[in-house]
Structures are given as C-alpha cells and as structure tokens.
Amino acid sequence: MAKYLAKRIFYLILTLFIVITVTFFLMKLLPGTPLTNQAKLSKSQIALIYEQYGLNKPVWQQYLLYLAGAVKGDFGTSFQFSDQPVSYLISSRIGPSLQIGLQAMVVGVVIGIIVGAFGAMKQNTWVDSTTTVVSILGISIPSFVLAVLLQYYLGLKAGWFPIAEWGGFIYTVLPTLALGAQPLAESARFVRTEMVDVLSSDYIELAKAKGLSKTGVIFHHALRNSLIPLITIVGPLAVNIMTGSMVVENIFSIPGIGEQFVKSVLTNDYPTIMGLTIVYSFMLCVVLLFTDILYGIVDPRIRITGKAN
Amino acid sequence: MADTVKLPEDSFKPISADDRAALDSEKIAAPSLTFAQDAWRRLKKNKGAWASLIVLAIVFLMAFGSIFVSPHDPNATNPSYANLPSKIPGININGFNGTLVQAGQRIDAYKQAGASNVHYIMGTDYLGRDLFSRVLYGTRVSLIIALVATLFDLTIGVAYGMFSGWKGGRIDTFMQRVIEIILSIPNLVVIVLLILILKPGMLSIIIAIALTSWTNMARLVRAQTLELKEQEFILAARTLGERPMKIAFKHLLPNLSSVIIINTMFTIPNAIFFEATLSYIGIGISSPQASLGTLLNDGQKNFQFLPYQMWWPAVVLSIIMLAFNLLGDGLRDAFDPRTKE
Amino acid sequence: MKINSAVKLGTVALFSAVFLAACGSSSSSSEADKQTLNWMESSALPSMDASTATDVVSGETMNNTGEGLLRFGKNSKTLPGVAKSYSKSKDGKTYTFNLRKSKWSNGKPVTAKDFVYAWQRTVNPKTASQYAYMYAQVKNANAIIAKKKPVSSLGIKAEGNYKVVVTLTQATSYFPALVASPMFFPQSQSVVEKYGKKYATTAQDNVYNGPFKLTYWTGTSDNWTMSKNASYWNAKNVKLKKINVKTIKDPQTALSQYQSGKLDATYLSGQQPKNYKHSKQYVERKSASTFYIEMNEKKDTMMKNKKARQALSLAIDRKQFVNKVLQDGSTAADGLVSTGLATKNGKDFNDDAAVPSATTQDLTKAKKLWKEALKETGRSNYSLTLLADDTPAGKNSAEFVQSQWAKLGNIKVTNSNLPFKTRLSRSQNGQFDAVISAWGADFPDPISFLSLFTSGNSYNNGKWSSSAYDKYVKAASGKDANNADARWNDMVNAQKTILNDQGIIPVYQQGKAQLVKSDVKGLIYFPTGANWDFSKAYISK
C-alpha cells in the first residue's frame, strides 16, 4: 500500500509538472501583455513595466523562475488585480467553489442513489420510467439553462431563495441544485443499471430464498454492492462540476474560482489562468487518487499492489 | 479384431427427404441473423431508442436540409420586426399566438410592429432574424462541431486504444500513463487554453474538443483489444502470418464496432454540451454565425422579457441530448447479447 | 407564461416584506439603514493604489474614498478639495494651492508633503505606473519617467505643511481637471512605507481622506463596502452612511437583483435597455469615448479625395446603428469630441462645434459625391478593407458600416476583424484602408480628443493633415491657454475643420444605460475616468 501510494504521488507530481510546463509555454504563445492601456504608452514605459513583471528575461529563465515559484505555491502576480499575488487570489476565492462543489456532489450523488435504487426496485413500472426520464433530462439540460430557470422561478418569481451573491447557507441552495443536477442524473442512471444487475444475481436469489425480508435484501446486499462501482464515476463527476461551476458561479455571482477563471480568460490575465489551471489539475488528481484508494478499500476483489495494473 | 459384429444389410438406410423434414429438433426455425441484424432487431423493440432514432433523423434532415430550404435567411436582419414572439397560425394559446407581456399587459407584438400578415413560428431575435431559421442553422453548426469532433476523437481514440492494447507490455503501460495524465487535467480548462491560442472559431472548437475527449474511447478500445487478442481467431490469423495492420482492420475493428458506436453516442452530446458552455463563457462561435450554445446564451440574457428566445433553443438542445442518450442506451442493450427480452 | 400582474405584484410585495423583516431583525437603527446605497459593478475592484490602478472601478472607488487638491462636481466642474483655494501665475505655468486643515482616516493631518510624495511615487520609474504619462505637463515628469532626472526634480514643492506649488512645462488650462483625478491624489508616506508591498491591497492596509472610507475589501472579494468617513473635512454634508458595492457579471442576474430590491441601481445591457426605455428609472449615461473611422490618406488617391471621405461618412445611418443595432445607450456621434465632456456657459462643446452636414446620413448626396470622387481619381470602382476589433461591438460596427457603404455602389468593402493588439499595430503602421478606432478622454477637456489629429501625431493613423487644424490646436494649448474664450473658439474651430474636411468619420459615442431607483438622489456622474461621486447622494424616503 505504501509503495502504491508513493508511486501514485510520484505520478501526481509528474502530472502537475507537465501541466505547469505545457501551460507555461502555451501562455507564451498567446498575445497580450499586463498592460491595460497599451495604446497610450511609450516604448520606454512598456519596457519599464515588462521589467516589473519579469517579462524582459529570456523565456527559459522565466520558465525556471516560474517553476521554482510554483513549487513554493507562488504563481506570480495577477495582471488584472495588479497588486495581488495569484496564490492569494486563488486561496481567497476557492472556499465558495469548494463548498458548492462538494454540496452539489453530495446532494447529487445521495439523491441519485435513492432515485436509482427506486428505479431498480420497481423495474419496468411507471416509477422506473419516471426516474429514467428524470435522470436523462438531468443530463440533457445544460447547467446554465437550469441555473437561469432556477434563478428566475425560485429566486425572483417565488422569492424562496436569494437570486444571487454569497452569504449564508441559503445562498448556496440554488447554485447547488443547478450544479447537482448532473451528478444526480449520472449517479441515478449508474446505480439503477448496477442494481438491476445485482438484483438478478445468484446470491440475491439465495438471500431471498433464505427468507430475508425485502428491505433486508435491498439494503444489506443489493444496494451495498451496487454502490461500490459508483466510486469510479466520482472523478468524472468532479470534472463535470468544475466545468459547470465556471458558468453557475457567474450566473449566481459567487466569488469563486470558476467565475475568476472565466474573467481571467476574457481579460487575458495569464498568470491567473495558469495558476487556476494548476489548481484545477491538482484538485482533480487528488480526487482521482482518493477514489482509487477508496475503491481498493471497499472492494476486496481489487487489490492494490506495487505492481503496475 | 477377431469377432466383428455382423449387421444385416438393411440395418441402415439413407435418410429420405421426407424423414429430414420430420426431424423438427434439427431445424432452425428462425432465419439466420448476423450480429448486426440481431442488434437492429433488438433496437427496434426498444421504443425509446427507436423513437430517438426517428427524432434524430428528423433533426438531421431539417438542420442540414435548411441549407437548401430555409424558411428565412438565418442572417437576414430586419430591425423593424425585432423581438417578435412565436406565432403559429391557428393556435391561440399564449406563448404561440404572437402576444407577449409588456409592462404588465399582454399585447399583440405583431400588431404593434405592423406585421399582422406575417408569422414567425419561433419568433424573431433582437435583429429581427427569424429564430426558427437561426435554430435550424445553429443546430446544424452544433451538429457539425459535434460530429467532426467525434470523428477526430474516434480516429485518435480507436487508433491509440488498439495500438496500446495490441502492443501490450511497456508500451501499453506508458500509453496508459499518458492517458491518466491527460485525464487529470480538467478538459474544459484545456479546451479554453487551446481556443485562446487558436482564436475562437468553429475549427478551433472542433480541434479543442477532439483533442481532449478521445481518452475515454481509447480506454474502452484498449480494454476490448486486450480481451480480443487472446482469442483463437486472432491467434489463428497471427499464426498464418497476417500483417498486424490487416488484423487490426479485418478482425479487430469489426469486433470493436459495438463499443465504438455506443461510446460515440455519448461523445456527440458531450461535444454539443461543451460547445454550448464555451459559447456561454464567450469564446464559442462568433456572430453572425450561430450555434445552439450562442442562441441559448443570447436568449438567456433576455429571459425575463422574451422567454421564448431561450426556450426554443433550450428545448431543441434538450431533445437532441435526450435522443442521443436514449439511443446510446438502446444501442448498448441491443449490442449486449445478455440483455433480457 | 400567463401571469396575472396583480398576483405578481402581490408576490413581490410579500417577498419584499419578508425580506425586509428578515433584514430588520439583524440591524438596529432603521434611519442608518435608509442611508445605505446598494451599488453594482460588472467587474471587481482590482486595486486601490492610486499610483498603479488603471481601471474604471478603481478610479471610481478612489474618487469616493480619497480627495485631491480639487474634486469634480456636476458637469465635471472642478470644486475645492483638499485645497481650499488656488492661484495661477500670469504665464499659467505655476499653480499655488492653499490647503485646508484636513485629516486622514487614521487621524493624521493631510499635508502638502503627502501630495509631493504621491506625485513623485507615481512618476518614479520603479513604480512602473501605467498612467505616469498623465503627468507629462508637470515639469521634468517626462525626464524622470525616462530615468534621465532624479525623482526629486519633479515640478511640485511643499512650502510648509499647507501650501503646494506646482510648476508646469507650459500653460495648461485643464490642469485643475487633472489634479482632481485619482492619480493626483495624496498618499501618506508613513502608511505606504508601513505596509510596503501590501499597501492598498486590502481595506485595512490603506488610509483615506475622502468622503468615505473603505471598510470591507479583501483585495479579491466581489463585494466591498464604503462607509462615511468621520475624519473628512466636509463630513457634515455627506448623507450616505454606507455604500455596498457588489460585483455582478451576469446582466440578467443584476437586473433580477435590482427588481427584487437588492440593488438601488444597475447597468443594463443587450436587450434590456429597450425594455426600460420608457421607465422613469431609466437613465442613459454618456461616456467620453468616441468611435470613429480613420481613412489611410497615404495609401492611395481615393482616400485622399475629400469627396470620397465625405461620401463614406454620409452613407452611414448612425441613428439606426445606435438605436437598432447597439441599443446599449450609445448615441450617434456629433463630432470627434464626445458630447457631455465639456461645457461653456451651460452649452455643450458640440452645441458650438458640431457639423451636422458631415455626420448625418444623406444617401443621395453620398452617392453623388462617391461618383464624382471615382471620376476625379480615374476609377470605375473602389475596393477597400475595413479594419476593426474582433470584439462583439467591433464586429457589429464593421458589419453595419460595410452594409451601409455597400449602398454607395461601385464599392467593395471587405471586413477584417483583428485582436486589439494586432489591430493597433496595423493601424499605427499604416497597413489599412479604413479602420474603426476609438478614443476615451483621460480628462474632461476637448483637447484630449483634438490633440490626436495634429500632423505627425502618432495616433493620427490616417495621416490626415491640415495646417489650419494644427494652428488651432497649437493655439489652444499654447498662446490661448490662459484665455478661456479664445481657447474655446480655437477648439471649436479645430473640430469644425476636421469635420468639414472629413479627416475622420465619427460614428458613435459609447454610452451606458442604467436603472436607478427613484428615491436615490444626488448622484453625480462625469463621463471621464472616475465616473461617480457619491458624496452628495442620499436616499429620500
């Protein structure tokens, strides 16, 4: 296990190194400078400001400096927030994003499991059809459309929830719903398929034959065994949530990193784009690592060894 | 062999045609079906998937047919007929009769614009362009992006997966590591970076989506290839000295087709989805070109006053996504011989 | 979709009641609550350092939390600020400001030294300020920026604690307007040095001498709060207790927040202005930026032909463009200088200097002129490339102008939309036939626009040249700099000259549409830089 962990962490570092390198050189290919009013500046002034940002050095030096900084968690200074280090910009904004992301994941997956399990138990009835339709609809509606609808009908029209901004828990309800719809739909679909499989397997038949109650069968055997593979889709779901957050945070004016990423893209704030790319990759790597370890723990059939595969 | 049993001459006699017909147990009652035929038959039994296939066929026909026959020019502006709501002749339900609520009162927008004799099924947008034509046009652009991106993604993914699985060993391990690294970079981030470099536009969106979404296909194809290459028919082909290229195309690919087709059905809606998100962020297709994503984004801005401008593209997008997903599910069941009937 | 409006009103009222009740329980005094302004911005506050900030939101916030020697009032008029009075030498090159006794929010006095320190800090090459060029009129500023002279040689001196003497390189009539802008505000040396690199990166790492002080801002937060500054010298006339500013990027969300009463004002975009045009709460704010077309006169004879240039201008229906296409509060340009920028005796600059015959559509005349121009230059038709930005507005403009020009006949227009940087370098290198350019005024004086098109100016991309124009502009900033009437006439004549000769084609003036609750009174808007002054604002309920 320790050997496996060491290996995985090595790959994590390697991945981050590649991400940093690739994004750094991609950014160098892009047009644009930290100057917001380039049109009005003289050449000598531009040179002066370049010096300030270290942009006058050769690219390889800039790269090494960036790499050395990144190791220490220093991603340079934002172009847009001219006095703020990117690391501070990210750390002060990551909280709301994490909160909504986690809430959406938990709410989505839990409700998804319930919906999926119901569907499987009442297979081929109207309950099943309804849950299937709901889950496919959840996948079919883009989160920003859902966000707009929720905001308009539940926020403005009904007035049940705040329309936007960031405050207490109540402010997180609509964004969580908008973001959670996809994990909900995906996990409901997944659980239903798995559970239909499990329900028709021999050991369930045996348990039934032994006279175990229906709820006993469902909770002790079927549900448990269908949930294990669900861990494998947590990684992809996390990616979905990250993607969705960029849009949902914008619509609900949440001071998070998704919104910041979009803003940085539109304002050519390259140090921030790079910093956020690294942070996103790091988060995803960690999620993948955890799900792999968790999978190894809950499923005895999968043994983690030091060997490849 | 001392005592051979002597049998009378007439112990055996050749079976006659009549006898053969009487032997029911040997008869294959149903016509012999190839794998594809069987899958098709199963698919037709799945009502959802069958309906989806028809819906998709209609959507494709209308979207691509509108190149030749479009109700209006999707880019022709007519500012004096701007923002007219849906009006379908003969239907007098609010929302479809050309009326809308303005300053708290329901008014006939067509009358107000002096356009009582025309009607736009889905209404018009802020420049007076026919929304129905725009939606058809946008659907076409979205489908083209999705299809071309999927095609690229197919080619890369299938080739990568087959090569990795076929070679095995160190090469396979290395190639799998590469995939793992790619998978741990959020794909929207990569897409955004690529588009920034390539300048927003249809081509860069296609490239960006294709470059990031092939990993799933590669993984599935590799797993299947690993399984297949141990099977006898491949072994036989190898023993006979068949070139690997030929084995790949003649033997592997047909056996991989179900995995590929199913995965494609899920890749296409994903690509449509990505394009829509990019448009929302503001780096998607640029006007006067339109995609479902840009139409949704435009509509979203006016949802309060002109809800139909978001509803129509949203409904069309959702129908397409729904159809692809249902068809994908249906195909998966159809290709899986274990599916219960 | 059918919603009974009475029910709708009911829900809104109920919602507001619930919402207000919820608010009431948490806050004590309702009187204090009333004087709270809820404001929105579409982008966050990136910096509060007067020396390095570059954007509008920073300028606006600093304008309310700080104060220079003078401050802007209604119609961009300069009023006494930290300086209670000032005098100007006869040659207009020396200004002496007499400071009042005022305090920073930390209780320390605001002195002449704070101005000297701030100004020197901004032009100091080490600070690398992107706006240092605004100091060009101050003696030695350019040499200091170019590292040729020491920072201490800047033309500002403190005489005692309450007198500032500024020396200029030449008489500059709009200098009072400059010192009212945030980049000329004082900075406390002890505070800047105390916080070092962290100076002005959060609400706490800073001191304020304006009507308000920043009480909440983490440096990266989407919300920030300005509260009344009790140390401000004129605090008794500041009525607002608090201003909550929120960043809302999605226009639909902003409007919903406004409708639900969470904002007292909101900017409108896209189709929203159209739906509110007739509302009492609807206001259009003119920005001091003009979009205009430059034609490359160095490239060929056609663009050198005045009739051709006139034809191109007269072919454009600017009203239709701003009302039907842009619809965002922008207005048809009356001239090169933006409307609402400068007034004299209550009359706008463009009331005196507009040339309607050069900026109003007249297609028949345009066609005629175009035909004549073709004949005079010996062509049967003319094709040109129209360069523009690749932003949505840039594309809209290019497409519209293209369709309008097509009506002239015997013309072929190709559009080329490029990223800003590329477009800029192409236009500066003369690699274009016609280009849609834009200019925003840095200070409220027509010369900010007019100085662009003198012969040889690096922003004069089309290389249009007129000795009369050069003479007027030179007089306005030189010999007539101390004579307000003569200077005004010089500038009026300059704009008339360039419009009559169609040296450029003004297209539109950028605007912002806004909704403001009717109980919000006393907001002061100015079209350049800092945009807003809340010091006189109050809620009338």
From TrEMBL, chain A:
<dbReference type="GO" id="GO:0005886">
    <property type="term" value="C:plasma membrane"/>
</dbReference>
<keyword id="KW-1003">Cell membrane</keyword>
<dbReference type="InterPro" id="IPR035906">
    <property type="entry name" value="MetI-like_sf"/>
</dbReference>
<feature type="transmembrane region" description="Helical">
    <location>
        <begin position="272"/>
        <end position="298"/>
    </location>
</feature>
<keyword id="KW-1133">Transmembrane helix</keyword>
<keyword id="KW-0812">Transmembrane</keyword>
<dbReference type="InterPro" id="IPR000515">
    <property type="entry name" value="MetI-like"/>
</dbReference>
<dbReference type="Pfam" id="PF19300">
    <property type="entry name" value="BPD_transp_1_N"/>
</dbReference>
<dbReference type="InterPro" id="IPR045621">
    <property type="entry name" value="BPD_transp_1_N"/>
</dbReference>
<feature type="domain" description="ABC transmembrane type-1">
    <location>
        <begin position="94"/>
        <end position="295"/>
    </location>
</feature>
<feature type="transmembrane region" description="Helical">
    <location>
        <begin position="227"/>
        <end position="252"/>
    </location>
</feature>
<keyword id="KW-0472">Membrane</keyword>
<comment type="similarity">
    <text>Belongs to the binding-protein-dependent transport system permease family.</text>
</comment>
<protein>
    <submittedName>
        <fullName>ABC-type dipeptide oligopeptide nickel transport system, permease component</fullName>
    </submittedName>
</protein>
<dbReference type="GO" id="GO:0055085">
    <property type="term" value="P:transmembrane transport"/>
</dbReference>
UniProtKB/TrEMBL annotation, chain B:
<dbReference type="InterPro" id="IPR035906">
    <property type="entry name" value="MetI-like_sf"/>
</dbReference>
<dbReference type="GO" id="GO:0005886">
    <property type="term" value="C:plasma membrane"/>
</dbReference>
<feature type="domain" description="ABC transmembrane type-1">
    <location>
        <begin position="139"/>
        <end position="328"/>
    </location>
</feature>
<dbReference type="GO" id="GO:0015031">
    <property type="term" value="P:protein transport"/>
</dbReference>
<keyword id="KW-0571">Peptide transport</keyword>
<keyword id="KW-1133">Transmembrane helix</keyword>
<feature type="transmembrane region" description="Helical">
    <location>
        <begin position="203"/>
        <end position="221"/>
    </location>
</feature>
<dbReference type="InterPro" id="IPR025966">
    <property type="entry name" value="OppC_N"/>
</dbReference>
<dbReference type="InterPro" id="IPR050366">
    <property type="entry name" value="BP-dependent_transpt_permease"/>
</dbReference>
<feature type="transmembrane region" description="Helical">
    <location>
        <begin position="178"/>
        <end position="197"/>
    </location>
</feature>
<feature type="transmembrane region" description="Helical">
    <location>
        <begin position="252"/>
        <end position="274"/>
    </location>
</feature>
<keyword id="KW-1003">Cell membrane</keyword>
<feature type="transmembrane region" description="Helical">
    <location>
        <begin position="141"/>
        <end position="166"/>
    </location>
</feature>
<dbReference type="Pfam" id="PF00528">
    <property type="entry name" value="BPD_transp_1"/>
</dbReference>
<protein>
    <submittedName>
        <fullName>ABC-type dipeptide oligopeptide nickel transport system, permease component</fullName>
    </submittedName>
</protein>
From TrEMBL, chain C:
<feature type="domain" description="Solute-binding protein family 5">
    <location>
        <begin position="80"/>
        <end position="460"/>
    </location>
</feature>
<dbReference type="Pfam" id="PF00496">
    <property type="entry name" value="SBP_bac_5"/>
</dbReference>
<keyword id="KW-0732">Signal</keyword>
<keyword id="KW-0653">Protein transport</keyword>
<protein>
    <submittedName>
        <fullName>ABC-type oligopeptide transport system, periplasmic component</fullName>
    </submittedName>
</protein>
<dbReference type="InterPro" id="IPR030678">
    <property type="entry name" value="Peptide/Ni-bd"/>
</dbReference>
<comment type="similarity">
    <text>Belongs to the bacterial solute-binding protein 5 family.</text>
</comment>
<keyword id="KW-0813">Transport</keyword>
<dbReference type="InterPro" id="IPR039424">
    <property type="entry name" value="SBP_5"/>
</dbReference>
<keyword id="KW-0571">Peptide transport</keyword>
<dbReference type="InterPro" id="IPR000914">
    <property type="entry name" value="SBP_5_dom"/>
</dbReference>
<dbReference type="GO" id="GO:0030288">
    <property type="term" value="C:outer membrane-bounded periplasmic space"/>
</dbReference>
<dbReference type="GO" id="GO:0043190">
    <property type="term" value="C:ATP-binding cassette (ABC) transporter complex"/>
</dbReference>
<feature type="signal peptide">
    <location>
        <begin position="1"/>
        <end position="21"/>
    </location>
</feature>
<dbReference type="GO" id="GO:1904680">
    <property type="term" value="F:peptide transmembrane transporter activity"/>
</dbReference>
